[in-house]
Amino acid sequence: MAKKSMSDHSHKVSAQPHIHQSARELQPFGSVTSMMPLQLEHPVRLEMTEQLNQLLADTITLRDLYKKAHWQVSGATFYQLHLLFDKHYNEQNEIVDTIAERIQLLGGVSIAMAHDVAELTRISRPPKGREEVPVQISRLLDAHEVVILHCRELARRADEVGDIGTNDMVVSDVLRPSELQVWFLSEHLVNAPLVEAEPLEESA
């Protein structure tokens, strides 16, 4: 057999980048792969990935609300809240990654792009402009409430269908950190005296 010359391979091997490529999707959104040895039935994984994508969309929106508040906060508590909002943003960013990886682990496709998230989220869209601090915090608390309610519902459902991995992730990695963040936020809405305490009422 004659040896192939180097010119025979010139059309296959090249230093030229292959740009502007396109192809069909490997897996459509809203589906799960059929051969995943996780001991979870296909309908269970399909339901869990659908629920987790809803949770993911809402968590991405909550995360981005924190960044908006971080950039736009103003007033006497600017420094403290600027740092707190950024801390919570970074924590939510880790939660987003955890949820997305759980979806992929179950054989699903995680939602990712901003326009898709905006279509799916149940959290109200904020205005583009700056808002007062109490409104910023209230908006964040409302968003947390959406996420926390879904976490409780999803954790119960995951337990019912035998997906203890999703149950554990939702409770440990999403619900508990969100509850902690709610506590930190809520304390900023307490109308407590800052410089002078309220005088005691004299007894009759």
What is this entry, summarized?
Helix content is 57%, strand content 0%. It is mostly helical.
Topology:
Layout lengths: L41 H31 L5 H28 L8 H7 L12 H28 L3 H23 L18
| Name of the CATH superfamily | Ferritin, core subunit, four-helix bundle
Radius of gyration using CA atoms only: 24 Å
Number of helices: 5
Task: Please tell me the overall pLDDT.
Answer: 92
Question: What's the number of domains?
Answer: 1
Tell me the structural class. mainly alpha
Number of strands: 0
Give a verbal description of the structure:
There is one protein chain. With 204 residues, the chain is mainly α. The chain is 57% helix and 0% strand. Helix 1 (42-72) packs antiparallel against helix 2 (78-105) and helix 1 packs antiparallel against helix 4 (133-160). The longest helix is centred in the first third of the chain and has 31 residues, at 42-72. The N and C termini lie far apart (115 Å). The mean pLDDT is 92.
Question: Which key features would you list for this structure?
Answer:
204 residues; mainly alpha; Ferritin; globular
